Predict the 3D structure of the following.
Amino acid sequence: LNEIGDKDRVDIIVTNPPFGGEEEKGIQLNFPEATRCSETALLFLQLIMRSLKKGGRCGMVAPDGVLAGDGVCARIKENMLRDFNVHTIVRLPQGVFAPYTAVPTNLVFFDRTGPTKEIWYYEQPVPEGRKQYTKTQPLCFDEFADCIAWWNNRKETERAWRVPIESVLGGSCNLDIKNPRMLGEDTSVPLGERNSHLARRLVHLSGKIESFLLAQDWQALPAAGGSDWKPIRLADVLHRVETSETIDPEKSYRLLGVSLDGRGPFPRETKLGHEIRASNLNKVSAGTFIYSRLFAWRGAFGVVPPELDGSYVSNEFPMYEIDKSQMLPEFLRLYFMRPTVLREVEKNCRGTTKASRNRFKEEYLLNMIVSAPDTEVQQHIVHLAHTVSALSAPLQGIQADLTSLPLGLLAAIYRGKL
């Protein structure tokens, strides 16, 4: 991705990227550690984001699993929402891509004009008298007439609703938001066919999970605490980065925060120097390990990605270069996502209350002992963790469909479509 420069970027991208596939490890190494995975749709999304010029636009097909996914998927979506304007998601009915896939899909539209403030959703209906689309009775362009008319005169209707970005970023960046006016009565798949529809998705996903779990990759991992692992004192691998700058009142500063639950740094806001109360800020560099003193106990650790290089943070965000010959940055980030580690962090926080001034000071961080294998095994663990995370994304969509089945049954009874 880093090889894509301004001369390689384009104004418009329209694409139906492959999803449900797995990319080989050699290709995955071209992506940042924090967002590296095997899922082709997520890799393509990152490529698209990198390839758009400022002001550029994109329309792409995305499965429900990408909208709902957490872990690596959530971090990628968080980057997209903070750096791009994701303005519209059109939810497509079942069968649009039949017979090639039964996976529910969406049209996602975004541009590179700034961060997302709100997202409009539009639910494309199935024609009256039809249960779903098929290969012989496909979705035709003319059927988007109502959607196109709504596009230029947006208002909330039975088919359209909008969601403020705060409600998305405040959770796990779940974009799989159902039509609130339907009260959970999802009729995109007829009730009588929903069992086979879910079964096909489960069989497909379980096959991928089984292949992953039975792969020799797992068997080759050495157990923690074995002779191949060694205790590493973080003071021996973390080297404090001091990049303090006196604030220029007329200069513009992009300020970062660090998300909870290990999701890493994000661009919080941009301010002019005279709008900032502090007299100094620290300039961040890509690849540095960073954390929030105030919210370390909630997993506010991460690694600065290349796209945030040159941003700024306050003194509440200590930064460190990592000795990569002993510890990989992404391995350390994953380590600080472990609940047992966060409990240790919480015990060493000092302050008045957890929610306000409860800080995790640098001295406690540097005194921590981390048991770790050599960096080759660390890289392997990171790859496996990202692969598992990508597999969980479609599972969330299936879980949501299973949860909606009782309401679907009731809706079918009242509509006489049982």
